[in-house]
Amino acid sequence: MSSSLSVSAPRRLSRRLAALTAVLVLLAGTVLASLAVGARAIDPAEVWRALTGGPASPEAIATVVGLRLPRTVAGLLVGLCLGLAGAVIQGLTRNPLADPGILGVNAGAAFFVAIAVGVFHIMSPAAYVWFAFAGALAATGAVFLIGSWGSMGSSPARLVLAGMAFGAVLAGVTSIIRLSNRQAFNAMVAWEIGSLSNTTWPVVAGVAPLALVGCLAAAIVARPLGALALGDDLAQALGSRLAVTRLVGVLAITLTAGAATALAGPIGFVGLMAPHVARWLIGPDQPWIMALTAGLAPTVVLAADIAGRVLTPPGELPAATLTAFVGAPVLIGLARRRQARGL
Amino acid sequence: MSRAARRRAALNLTLALIGLLGAVLALGLGDYPLTPAQVVEALVGSDSGFARTVVVEWRAPRVMVALAFGAALATSGALFQSLTRNPLGSPDVIGLSTGSYTGALVAMAWAGSGRLATTSGAIVGGLATAVLVYVLAHRDGVQGFRLIVVGIGVTAMLHAFNLFLLARLREETAMTAAIWGAGSIGLIGWDRALPALAVLAALTPLTVAAAPALRQLELGDDAAGGHGLRVEPARLAILALGAALTAVVTASAGPIAFIALAAPQIAQRLTRSPGTPLLASALLGGLGLLAADLAAQFVLPMAVPTGAVTVVLGGAYLVDLMIREARSDKTAR
User: Fold this and answer.
1) CATH number for the domain that contains residue A228
2) Which of chain A's residues have a Cβ under 8 Å away from the Cβ of B154?
3) Architecture of domain B7-332
4) Is the ipTM here above 0.90?
């Protein structure tokens, strides 16, 4: 690093470590809360015994280990994936407002789920999760393919427009399928709402390996993405291999966004919001932003899920409703705060 | 006349002619098919036979509504996109249609699914969303980009709320609501079409009057101010006009997506003009909705809401245009 920065470097590092520690503590607290809080009130000591294999009532074991544990793990995975997907998309497109949803990932996943339910009559979430995954993969790939033609890759605005146009086409076909098939309609309403309440172990275990590969790819491109933020020419001069960075970046986005959408349905705003909060906390440094995002995003998803369990008894609010209601004001605040330009 | 102006005039004339021919064709299609000659005879002739009933009473409202609503949506989109200088600044992206849907859903959930409740719910919802987005985006005036971001945020909240409401409604009501929410002009007869058409007709001269101010604003706030335009009031008036156009259409037909976004973009590319051409957008919008409605009725094997078709057709055409544009950029290099 240059010498002019070295004076403040130790202080900056300690500030960043403090932020990371605080976020991880917050995340740990949220995980515990997610295991302890629910429609059925269970004593925390009993929850602990159920988790550690101590003497607990079978009812408590069934609730904590059978329901809350997979749900919490799913929430962690979904949050991690959404946050990293958002951070990589924002870095890759140099667009502060990019989000998996904006690039048509959700529309692609919904389209394939509609085909699974409406055409192949696949009704179990464990089976159509793979359709959601494939759809997210296909949509992201297609949007980046359209976006990489000619001069389009260099213009984030066009990439976003391509994502919205393509997503709209898929959404239109989806609505035709669901409106002409009552079965598909009911299944879609349950999936589209974006909730963790139906997660089971087989689904989580099936999606987790792919999700983790995606997170690994995201971690690999963290540093090159930081160089990319300086502009193509400068990044190249600094020795970044642009093509490789882009390829691994797109791979990371498709895997993480696909896994998250497959697990929980379309959950918006986490991928948009978490990297911004991270940047606001520790300044513009891509690897640190991604590390902090990896702690912040799961916290947000789990907190939204917990709040959804307790806010409207006896029913539940889906996590996506709460992330939208927390995330949208953050977005609006960002737009008001500074002279945001681009898109 | 400059070359660009000639090109635009020729395009507008062509679009108008295609629209006219399409309307005659549409009036002849159905379970009781009529040739174009029979349609014209039924329209202008003096006899009051069965053909006249079919054409004037049954099919004409739907065709009129398709042309007028499409034109209104496209005009609204052109106004918003021109003000924000961004294709994403169209009313369906910044939440006006979603707000109308919220209003209608709330009305269906608590006041029953009567037509009056739904319509007024949709109008109130759409206009309230417009006011909310404007107020939230207002800070030393309204800058286009901020308006879009705020709009996307508000849309997301309303969308989440809509899904939540939809999952809470009884199954029958939910299906009705979802069909309304996809946008359909199939069930509109003269009794419902006339009030909406009258309001749209009243808004047309206002749009024509707003066009010069819009052109000045396209040059930038400073230049417009320098020409003696009061920038912020003019912008507010144009936004209100655009919001009203969308609200009227959405209240009668449900949210018909993508015409407002796609028509001005396609018009701009066809006319190769730097700004957003109002007339060409309106003509393309009317034509697009008519085509989508015909496809919904006669091409697809099952009955499908018009709005679902407009999304698919408009989106596909926009993707195609963007790919071709990118290719020609590539060869030009």
Assistant:
1) 1.10.3470.10
2) 328, 332
3) Orthogonal Bundle (1.10)
4) no
